[in-house]
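#help-structures
NK: newbie question, is this the right format to request a structure? protein is glutamate formimidoyltransferase
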Amino acid sequence: MSKLVECVPNFSEGRNVEIIESIVDEVRKVEGVKLLDYSSDKDHNRSVVTFLGVPDEVEKAAFNLIRRAAELIDMRKHRGAHPRMGATDVVPFIPIKDVTTEECVEISQRLGKKVGDELRIPVYLYEDAASCAERKNLANIRKGQYEGFFEKIKQPEWKPDFGPDEINVKSGATVIGARFPLVAYNINLGTDDVEVANAIARKIRYIGGGLRYVKAVGVKVTERNIVQVSMNLVNYEKTPIYAAQEMVKMEAKRYGVPVVGSEVIGLVPMKALIDCAEYYLQIENFNMSQVLESRISG
C-alpha cells in the first residue's frame, strides 16, 4: 500500500448503538480501507470515525458512510451539545503517505459533487479545499447550525458548492474538505456551570483573540454533572496541546474552578503527545528518534 489518505467523518448520532454500528459498517465493507478508530459521545450526540487507505477506496467508503447516515439519521429530531448542521456533519481528508494536499482537495471536490448530485444534500468545501476565504473556517460555515440553515442557505454568499440551494430537511448539509491532522481535545472542569466553560472557550479560541490554531466551545457533560471546554487544535505543531491546557487552567483560576481531567477524541499523532512530555518534564535536547516505538515502526 503506497499512497495513504486518512478520513475522519463526524456524524450526528452518539446514543443509538445500532445506528452507529450500521454507519461504521459501511467503512468495514470496503477493501483497501482500514478502520482505525471510532468513538461516540452521548452528550454531544455525535460520533467520530477514523479510517485509512488508498485514495479511491477511502473516497468510496466516505460516500457510503454519508449515504447510510442520511438514511438513518433525521436531523429534525437531533439534539446534542456539539454544534452540527448535518447527519454527516464534516468529512475531512488528510494526506498521510505519498499523497499531496492538492490530491486530497480533488477527492473532496469529487465526493462533494457526488453527494450533492446523488444524495441531494448541500455540500460546502472547507479548509484547504475551500472555494473562498469565508469558507475556510468550519465554525464560520456551521454558524447557525441545522436550524439556522433554512434561512442562511438562501443568502447568495452561502450558496452551496455542490447540491441543491435549499436545506435537505432530513439530512441537513455536509462540509467536506482537506486539512492538516488535528487533535480533538477536551478539558473537563470541576463545575456544572456551562457559562464558565463558554467564557473560557471564548477567551482561548482564535476567533476571540486567543490561541491561533484553537477552536473551542463550552459543553455540558450531563452524565458527570460537569462541563468541559471542547477544542479542536487544528495545527498541533504551531499551537501544541500543552499551550491550550495551560491557558484553560489559567482562565479557570479566574472563576475558582479546577481542571479535573481531559480527553482525546479519536486518534492523536504521537508527536503531539511527545511534545507535551518534553514540555512538562523539561527534557533537554530530546529527539523523536529516542522513542522506542518510532524505531520499531521505522
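mod (FA): yep, format's fine, and the C-alpha cells are attached above. Residues 156 and 184 are 32 Å apart (CA to CA).
NK: thank you!
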